[in-house]
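queue> holo job accepted (flavin mononucleotide)
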Amino acid sequence: MADRDTLLKILDLARWAPSGDNTQPWRFEIVSDTHIAIHGHDTRDWCVYDFRGYASHIAHGALLETLRIAASDVGLKATWALRKGSTDVAPIYDVSLQHTADIKRDPLLAFVESRAVQRRPMSTTPLTDEQKTALTNAVGEDFELSFFESGKMKRRVAKLLWDSAYLRLTCPEAYEVHKRVIEWGARFSEDKIPEEAVGVDAVTAKLMRWVMQSWARVAFFNTYLAGTIAPRIQLDVLPAMRCAAHVLMTPRRTPTEFLDYVRVGEAMQRLWLTVASLGLHLQPEMTPVIFRWYAQNGASITADRSMDAASARLAGKFDALSGRASDESVVFFCRVGKAPNPVSRSLRMALRTLLQPD
Ligand SMILES: Cc1cc2nc3c(=O)[nH]c(=O)nc-3n(C[C@H](O)[C@H](O)[C@H](O)COP(=O)(O)O)c2cc1C
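queue> job finished
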């Protein structure tokens, strides 16, 4: 049995799990001394990046894994099960907490709060074999990691991200998301991405902020003033070249249900925390993965279908680069490397906001 304060302490740490655009698609309920319910939701109704809710499901997995790690600090073993009858749109994960004699404090515990996305250029010092082995072990047997490390491969990834960013910056649906998730003029943000963590210099940020006040301005800038160039160089090309490696995570079994993405999230969080434990940083590079999900499922990223051909071409390039067949599954893509801790980062909503009232 754990008292309520212990459960609050666990949840207070677990809420540091990462989520796409810091959306934190979860609410917590303390049901009893041994039972926490996680009420998940997703953002697919307004966020073009949350294809079928997969990005949120990955975040749910990251939260559940972080909760498990946090519980180990107080000698509790946390196991979860999807509540019967709950669906991918509003999944409820019932977490059971039990004292067991053999539970050890998880070594990743120390990095739960300090882990943060690094969107700025990193050192190109290659990963050592020991580091790659640690990362491969972190994701477990259900997933495989591929490392793209040579200058040639980094250039191919840079080109992929360049093309992907063009779609991202010229798609009205994505514009609505960017407008909603960036907190302008901020270094820290509880429920968004603060401007300084976006990864562009101050002048470009100022310009982006002004341009992004209306879609008409964005469209004009993109068409006549090469508006996508500066952000794409700073957000995609430079970071792609300036890292130790790009890392692709693929599942050994094709996902067939949404819970498979929750399991991706558990492995992703172990990978990210292990990166932090090695003194390295990570930035997810999920846009090409997400656009590939659209292409694989014959879905359009924009209402008028005008980008279908471009997203299919992008998926083809991703397949060629990664050596995957078009029907194979790709679930997480990121870059890693040594870098200073980011001075600006996303914070989290207060625990009392995330807790459902009794
Ligand atoms: C499923 C998922 C997808 C993400 N995709 C991206 C991405 O494509 N690019 C990026 O810069 N950050 C991405 N992130 C990082 C989030 O924006 C970040 O984790 C969140 O804002 C919280 O910030 P923190 O990780 O610094 O605590 C992603 C995170 C998750 C969990």
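queue> The mean pLDDT is 96.
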